[in-house]
Structure formats: structure tokens, C-alpha cells
Specification:
The structure is a single chain. The protein is an alpha/beta fold and about 325 residues long. The protein has 2 domains: about 240 residues, Spore Coat Polysaccharide Biosynthesis Protein SpsA, Chain A (Alpha-Beta Complex); about 70 residues. The protein contains 10 helices and 8 strands. An 8-stranded mixed beta sheet has the order 7-5-6-4-1-2-3-8, with helices on both faces. The longest helix is centred in the last third of the chain and has 35 residues. The protein is elongated and about 90 Å long.
């Protein structure tokens, strides 16, 4: 039987955490009885610098429940870094790790299917949503548009997949070789290769608490994904510059002809052209600046996360 770790990033999740621990404890007990999880299996709760009682609850549960382990990051590093911290910790002890959210929107009933596909030889198993009926119209439209846009840019992402996935120890070892500071795991994991499969599920409503991905963070996450895996926006800037130059030349010629023939106020056209060109230049500078900023972060190569404290973990000896 495999040792299975459930890796769960937590940020201000005190309202939902008791129910999450309860449901996953029941699930681990059932999986052990079914021969799908060894006794060393557990849920690894990663506190991403929470400002509420999340870490106090993790400490309490780890003392009372053998299935609960925890790590506390030194400060808030964001969902992707917290998830990576949990996965890199889990690979020291587990045969495979399943990443999922703490809000119970991911269907835990399909965890058996994840592990069964792992036992059948898959190194990566993606949890893919069947539909998006629980999303608002705005979120559903923007999310689908994001996946289609990423596909147009040539980025290999799994359609309707977030971060609900199983990874074998071999896949986790391969993931550890990717050193980029700007993390976008949904685009990074497909680059690993190995044998993959998918499990389809319906996403539930959030059990309690508030979403940790408001519009601002969703936009930032999308920009990170696009700029981390594609240089096509830079190529689009070049094409836009060529088109703008051509249109500007045509406009200048037309203005001169119109002024000579009819005496029209060509300066009005010139003013609006300057506004247009100024806006385009600022937009282009913003795109280039985003890439330069990412280069700046990568060159500094600062640690992606620092673990301040760990609870209920085995001796850090990698399994043979």
C-alpha cells in the first residue's frame, strides 16, 4: 500500500479547518481499510502566514489526530509557494501526494480514483472539473477565456484543472528540479511529462469562510501564468508597433492632403494621434516591464519559502 499525503495550503482557514480535518480523517480511514493508503499516510496542512487561529488549530489537531501533520511558513508567500512547500516536504516521506484546497470545494470522494490510477502506473493524475455551474457568470466566463487564451499562446495547461492533482514521488523529484521563483504550477507540472491521466468531478460550494482569490489576485495569477510560459506578448508588441507605424504614416499623408485640398484643421487629427500613440507606448512599456520584473526576481533567486515550524512529521529520511 502506498503512503499518501494530502497537501493542503491554508491561509486564514480557521472557519473551515475543523470540518476539513474531520472529512479527510474519515477518508483516510476508509482508504486504509480499502488497501489504498498505508498507515503512514496523513494530511499535511501548510500555514501560509495566517493572521487568524489557523496555526493554533493545526497544532491542536496534530496533537490529537495521528493523521494530521503541519508546517508553518515564516511569512505569507502566496498559495503557489505554500503548495510547493507542502509538496517538497511530502516527497521526503510519501509515495504520492495529492494537493487540494482547504475549503472543501474539491470532491474528496474521488481520492480513491486518484490513488488507483497511481497504482496502475500513473505519475500525475489531474482533477478536472466537469462543469462550472457553481461559479458566477463573470468567473466562469473569465476562467474559460483564460484557458483558451493560454492555449492560443502555446502554453500547455490542462483545461478546467486547478491545483487538485496527484503526483508520485518521482514526479515530485522532477518538480524539485524546476527552480523558477515565479511559480505557476498549473503550467509547470505538464512540463514534467511521465504517464498522466485525469479524474473528472463536480466542484462543490465553499463550506465556510471567504475566497482567497478576489478579482485582483485572479488577474495577477493570470498575468503570472501568461508571462511565465510565453513570450508571445512581446512578439505581439512588435506586430502592434509595425501596424501602428503604418497607420500613422497613412494618417500623416491623409492629413496633409486634406489640409492642402480643403484647409481642414489637421492639428486636431495630430493631437488625437499623439494620445493614441502615447497610450499604446505606455501599454507596451507595461508588458515589457512585467517581463523585466520577472527577470529581476529570477536573478535574485531568493528562497521561495522558509519553514518556521513543523509538527507530527516523521524523521526526515527519504523512503527507499
Amino acid at each position: 500500500m502506498p503512503v499518501v499525503y494530502f497537501v493542503i495550503p491554508c491561509y486564514n482557514e480557521e472557519k473551515v479547518l475543523p470540518e476539513t480535518v474531520k472529512r479527510l480523517t474519515e477518508k483516510l480511514e476508509k482508504m486504509q481499510s480499502a488497501g489504498l493508503a498505508d498507515r503512514g499516510s496523513c494530511m499535511l496542512l501548510v500555514d501560509d502566514g495566517s493572521r487568524d487561529a489557523t496555526w493554533e488549530l493545526i497544532s491542536k489537531f496534530s496533537a490529537e489526530n495521528e493523521f494530521v501533520a503541519g508546517i508553518k511558513l515564516a511569512h505569507n508567500r502566496g498559495h503557489q509557494n505554500a503548495l510547493l512547500a507542502g509538496l517538497m516536504t511530502a516527497r521526503k516521506y510519501a509515495d504520492c501526494a495529492v494537493s487540494l484546497d482547504a475549503d472543501l470545494q474539491d470532491d474528496v470522494d474521488i481520492l480513491d480514483e486518484f490513488v488507483q490510477k497511481f497504482l496502475d502506473g500513473c505519475d500525475i493524475v489531474y482533477g478536472v472539473r466537469k462543469r462550472r455551474e457553481t461559479d458566477t457568470v463573470f468567473k466562469r466566463t473569465t476562467a474559460l477565456g483564460f484557458y483558451k487564451f493560454m492555449e492560443k499562446l502555446g502554453v500547455n495547461v490542462v483545461y478546467n484543472h486547478a491545483d487538485y492533482r496527484l503526483m508520485s514521488r518521482r514526479a515530485l523529484d522532477a518538480l524539485s528540479e524546476y527552480r523558477e521563483v515565479n511559480l505557476f504550477l498549473r503550467g509547470l507540472v505538464p512540463l514534467i511529462g511521465f504517464r498522466t491521466d485525469s479524474v473528472y468531478y463536480d466542484r462543490h460550494e465553499r463550506f465556510a469562510g471567504e475566497s482567497k482569490y478576489p478579482l485582483k489576485k485572479m488577474v495577477s495569477f493570470a498575468v503570472d501564468g501568461i508571462t511565465s510560459f510565453s513570450v508571445k506578448p512581446l512578439q505581439m508588441i512588435f506586430s502592434l508597433g509595425m501596424i501602428t507605424t503604418f497607420v500613422s504614416l497613412v494618417g500623416v499623408i491623409w492629413s496633409l492632403v486634406s489640409h492642402c485640398a480643403h484647409g481642414t484643421a489637421a492639428w486636431i487629427i495630430g493631437v488625437w494621434s499623439l494620445w493614441l500613440l502615447g497610450g499604446i507606448l505606455l501599454l507596451c512599456m507595461g508588458v515589457v516591464g512585467t517581463y523585466v520584473g520577472k527577470i529581476y526576481g529570477e536573478v535574485k533567486a531568493r528562497p521561495r519559502f522558509l519553514v518556521e515550524q513543523s509538527l507530527n512529521l516523521p524523521a526526515e529520511v527519504k523512503k527507499n
